[in-house]
Specification:
Helix content: 40-55%
Order of helices and strands: HHEHEHEHEHEHH
Largest sheet: 5 strands, parallel
Strand content: 5-15%
Number of strands: 5
Radius of gyration: 27 Å
Distance between the termini: 49 Å
């Protein structure tokens, strides 16, 4: 069977050729050698990379809210004060057209401080959704710095919870934000973090960020590999 298939392979390769003795010899010899050599290279590759997993691509982009998707109004409880940042709509459109899920992860310590109610935060979030939605998921941390929760950025709780909700690994998520705690939360969760600096971003946070982008649209393009869908 091997000899017959090798002969058929050689005949196909000889069609249209000059048919000289040298060519016939080369085609017969190489036709016999190509299949076992190809199998050997395949086997060597499988043994060399046994147990390796392909690197997961980004499937979800999580965005910080204040200072990233919308202009930062400290402890904002008024939906009428919600103003999207310059490139937020374009960035979200890029992500959605690429088939990625988009979500929001936001610290709202004003609830713990008694400066906001959860109802006010929810009303602001609904306005963000009206202007920039729909979003596939929301995560809100209502705690203060001293509460010791695992969800408040720079801790990874909200990122991990978002990944779990989508049935993904944290490595398949990215977090885009404007301050160091955003990229630190991504790093702690095992996700990809991109910093989009604003006037509120410290120079040290920019230096320490694993990735930066000048605006949200550029950040999403970076996460898409530089390709517009």
């Amino acid at each position: 069977l091997w000899a017959a298939r090798t002969a058929a392979f050689a005949r196909r390769r000889l069609r249209g050729g000059p048919g000289t003795a040298a060519e016939v010899t080369d085609m017969v010899v190489t036709s016999a050698l190509i299949p076992p050599l190809a199998c050997w290279h395949r086997l060597r590759g499988e043994l060399r990379h046994a147990g390796a997993r392909p690197a997961p691509g980004v499937r979800v982009i999580l965005f910080d809210r204040d200072g990233t998707l919308v202009e930062d109004v400290p402890y904002n409880g008024d939906p009428d004060k919600v103003r999207p940042t310059a490139s937020a709509a374009r960035a979200l459109d890029l992500a959605r057209r690429a088939g990625l899920a988009v979500g929001v992860v936001t610290n709202q310590s004003g609830i713990a401080r008694g400066l906001l109610t959860r109802a006010q935060v929810d009303a602001v979030n609904r306005r963000v959704e009206e202007l920039l939605g729909p979003f596939d998921l929301w995560r809100v941390c209502p705690h203060g710095e001293r509460d010791g929760c695992g969800c408040r950025k720079p801790r990874p709780g909200m990122v991990r919870s978002a990944a779990a909700e989508r049935g993904l690994l944290p490595a398949q998520c990215a977090l885009v934000g404007d301050i160091g705690s955003d990229v630190e939360a991504a790093r702690a969760a095992g996700a990809r973090g991109v910093l989009v600096p604003t006037a509120a971003t410290l120079d040290a946070e920019v230096r320490d960020a694993p990735e930066t982008a000048p605006d949200l649209e550029a950040a999403v393009l970076r996460l898409l590999g530089g390709c517009t869908p």
